[in-house]
Amino acid sequence: MRPQAVLILLPPACHHGGRIPLGFPMFQPIIIQGGMGVATSGWRLARAVSQLGQLGVVSGTLLAVVLARRLQEGDPNGLMRHALAHLPFSQVAERVIDTYYVEGGKPVDAPYRPVSMPGQFPSQALTELTVAANFTEVFLAKEGHQGRVGINLLEKIQAASLASIYGAMLAGVDYVLMGAGIPRSIPGVLDRFAEGKAAELKLDVEDNAAGPEAPMSFDPSTLQAGPLPTLTRPQFLAIVSSAALATTLAKKSNGRVDGFIIEGDIAGGHNAPPRGPMQLTPAGEPIYGPRDVPELAKFRDLGLPFWLAGGYATPEKLAEARQLGAAGVQVGTPFAFCEESGITDDLKRQACQMSLDGTAHVFTDPCASPTGFPFKVMRMPGSLSEPGIYTQRQRVCDLGYLRQSYRRPDGTLGYRCAAEPVDEFVRKGGTADGTDKRQCLCNGLLATVGLGQARPTGEFPIVTAGNDVANISRYIAPGATSYTAADVIRYILSPVAQA
Description:
The protein has 499 residues and is of the alpha/beta class.
């Protein structure tokens, strides 16, 4: 029987000699909801968690595509247009609606209108759509309450970062979370936007050690003439797996880092690769060892708050995290399959039943992601986890968010993705071996939330989850088939059972 404890906000642990370091956030959530997938951590989920006193987080991944497709679905409840009506740049909102909104929704078998791919020099239309989309998601998550809301972005998706951050800040986002790389320049971007100034990032270029830099810039003044809105700098939390990376970010970033989320290898989505040469189990999963265990003493020495992630969604693990000096925990997988998440109802019901039956299984795939990072894939019928479905899908790269930039022989910048058609990848300087078993996460994750592109061969979901998906049945009441975000929070914050 599940504990029915009252939700209590516990005081944060303090390991700073009673002093609050400069920039230390006055609000420290006990639970940070993970920013998962593409629209899995959507505004409904983030809003629900935030209203319960914890940190709700929206996923900022591919939001431009998500908004464009929601508008083409006819925006049946009007919420996308409601949020866009509050965008400070009214002409931008009008252009987005004029371009993508379809009264009554497009025909089911008709393809969605394409959105241009991000790159070093995105079109003005894509920049405006990206700003509007991130504003919309955060606005809806924050509307009508005083709770805090964050946005999760991936360092690997650099080309969309600047416009995404600015759009989220326009809506008053409270936290920016970023992992999947070394986001040393993001704190400075937050500072620049809070000052009403343009910001710049350097695009990582593969095999470009001796080549020229590839700067990207975003100037808010291009959105409209006249004074710009005054923005508040959000807190910045870096998602890391090692104390060495955290130390680098704390000491060498171009602005203030406000804390860390320490993500273990059993967490869902992308995992950091094991340290040292890649070794695989007989089943083909990466082997993590003692070198991959984070040195928490070094995190404590940094004097910044941190949260532990990956299998911490129980009262016992929360208590353990706080005893180790953590301010709390980040929880992803249990929220991914709750009623408020963006995953389709059919997939959520299937995952819950598999957990109840004891058949829920996750494979840490070293090849699935075109980024080269290990990626956790839940084995589910009808999804890309089935080899037959993977081979059935026609390889196509028409969204481009995980493309890697490279330098062409003539010195210009090109883009390639290991999940695109093999001949195209090879033509761009890649190797055929580099495409083996790679999956299009952009299209697969959109299909997971019911926004897959209509194609003759179909688009199929790819469901990512942490190892803890086997245990989501703990949140399901006897006789029920689903659970809510409140059920997850209530369980984690319940008193630890005494032996």
